[in-house]
Amino acid sequence: MTMPTPPPVRPFTLEELRDARDRISGVITRTPLIRLEVPGLSRRIWLKLESLQPINAFKIRGAANAVAMLPEDDRQRGVWTISAGNAGQGVAYAAREAGIPCTVVVIETAPDTKVERMSRLGARLVKAPFDACWRAMENREFPGVEGTFVHPFDDHDFVVGNGTAALEIFEDLPEVDTVVTAFGGGGLISGVGRGMKLLKPDVGVWVAEPETAAPFALSFEKGSPQEFPNWKASFVDGAGGKSVFPRMWERVRSVVDGGVIVTLDQTRQAMRTMAETARIIAEGAGALPVAAALEGRVPGENIVAVVSGGNIDMKLFAEIVG
């Protein structure tokens, strides 16, 4: 069944953000904000550890809010989403909590660790190539999959749920100057960025992307949503799409102040630094904003890097940081 046209994009309100926090409080973890202690570093880098969520990724915030906001008829039909792993885990977890079935169309290059976790959460898995999944996210349908579609980033309620992290950041560090997150589809930065601007309008909001997949930086340069021509898969599987969706560009262009492209070597070093100094396990996407901050690529004295996830196979992690 073809999905209806999604509603027009609109910015969320502070009231919506606070309501979402109350709504999902029984599902998510209020994650800590800790300082990354690196000798000789003049600026202060703080880590918002979304890697400590029940699914080890921020996506549970948006998924929990989106599923909770569905009308009863839509919930009873079951839900489905598209994912490389973290959104799928979030929707599967929220669906399990709500007692409804879930299907995840999984990008076939998704790490085994994430695939296994989605399966353990009770999701029915359908594997497909990256390009087919990317088209399905645009079209909001996939052959043979039925139920209520929960978009992994282009969904108002999902974005609001993600934005609840901004409330926690501001409460824990009112003097925050800059917040930086990875960019995959744009759901994290559009939520956290909008939330931070509502709470502290002069805060800097920045995006970090891998050199192998940086459509936002190109879009920011051109002033319009762009495709990234030289996209390559890498160990940074939770960020870096092939393009910026026009609807997501509408959401982020008014709240993001700049974008940074991070090399894979810088990402590896950030993963290593977090592991050595704070004993934090971050996946590639979670390390991107930390790399941007460590390299001095974003402004500010109090920089919050959102560690978006820690879902990575430990053998691969050891190979990367070793």
Keywords:
322 residues, alpha/beta, Rossmann fold, 2 domains, six-stranded mixed β-sheet
CATH topology-level name of the largest domain: Rossmann fold
Number of domains: 2
- Which residues form runs of ≥5 with pLDDT under 50? none
How do the strands of the widest beta sheet line up side by side?
1-2-10-7-8-9
- Count of helical regions: 13
Anisotropy-based shape: globular
**Rg, Cα atoms, Å:** 18 Å
Please, could you describe this protein's structure?
This protein is α/β, with parallel strands linked by helices and about 325 residues long. The chain has 2 domains: about 15-60 and about 155-320, Rossmann fold (3-Layer(aba) Sandwich), CATH 3.40.50; about 60-150, 3-Layer(aba) Sandwich (Rossmann fold), CATH 3.40.50. Helices cover about 45% and strands about 15% of the residues. It has 13 helices and 10 strands. The chain has helices at about 15-25, 60-70, 70-75, 85-100, 110-120, 130-140, 155-170, 185-200, 215-220, 245-250, 265-280, 285-295, 315-320; strands at about 35, 45-50, 80-85, 100-105, 125-130, 150, 180, 205-210, 260, 300-305. The chain has a 6-stranded mixed beta sheet with strand order 1-2-10-7-8-9, with helices on both faces. Strands 5-4-3-6 form a 4-stranded parallel beta sheet. α8 links the parallel β7 and β8. α2 (about 60-70) runs parallel beside α4. About 50% of the residues are buried. The mean pLDDT is about 95.
